[in-house]
Amino acid sequence: MTKNELTPVVPAIIRREPPRELARSSRPIFLPAQIGRADEKTQRRFLEFFAATIRNKNTREAYYRAVCKFFSWCEARGVKDITQVEPLLVAAFIEEETEAHQAQTVKQELAAIRKLYDHLVTGQIVPFNPASSVRGPSYSIDVGKTPVLSQAEARRLLESIPLFNNSPVNFGIEKGKSGG
């Protein structure tokens, strides 16, 4: 299996009495293998995370891809249950992703894992969030996108501004007139 291949996922099937539709969708919803093997409460909480807590469609899809990628990575390393995930495992995944992707992408993947596990903790599915203590890659911009004026250009710009009453700031108020 190559590094970027995902392990097979299990279709999301939640059994309840009596059977009802969770939501209508033109596309099937697939669960990572660890979630598919879990109980109904865990499956429902996983789906609720994406359906109820993330409003932006693009963010929801990016987080879903990131979480599925993480669980696939875990599955390839023998982690078959979501409760077996530990901070060291999350850190190893982030480290590996940092070598292959830009910092912003890895930070988003870590955010997806953190938020999912936060949701699972509040739903009493897992006892703690294994991603909460993991630090993401640092990201800083050395060269900004905003152009910087040279001293001569800044002087020309300031000198081009018409002065009002010999003051460099014009608030649009004339002497003797009151606003109203």
Task: Please render the helix and strand layout as text.
Elements: E1 10-11, E2 30-31, H1 33-36, H2 40-52, H3 57-76, H4 87-100, H5 103-122, H6 151-159
Antiparallel strand pairs: 1-2
Description:
The chain has helices at 33-36, 40-52, 57-76, 87-100, 103-122, 151-159; strands at 10-11, 30-31. With 180 residues, it is mainly α. It has a two-stranded antiparallel sheet. The longest helix is centred in the middle third of the chain and has 20 residues, at 57-76. The radius of gyration is 26 Å and the shape is elongated. It starts with 9 loop residues before the first strand and ends in a 21-residue tail after the last helix.
Key features of this structure:
180 residues; 6 helices; two-stranded antiparallel sheet
Q: What would you say about this model in short?
A:
The protein has 6 helices and 2 strands, in the order E-E-H-H-H-H-H-H. With 180 residues, it is mainly alpha-helical.
Structure classification: mainly alpha
> What radius of gyration results from the CA coordinates?
26 Å
Give the overall shape, derived from the CA principal axes: elongated
Average per-residue pLDDT, rounded, comes to 80
Spans with pLDDT under 50 lasting ≥5 residues?
13-22
Q: Kindly state the percentage of residues in helix.
A: 40-55%
**H-E order:** EEHHHHHH
Strand order of the largest sheet: 1-2
**Proportion of β residues?**
under 5%
Distance between the termini: 75 Å
* SS field, number of helical segments: 6
DSSP E strands, number: 2
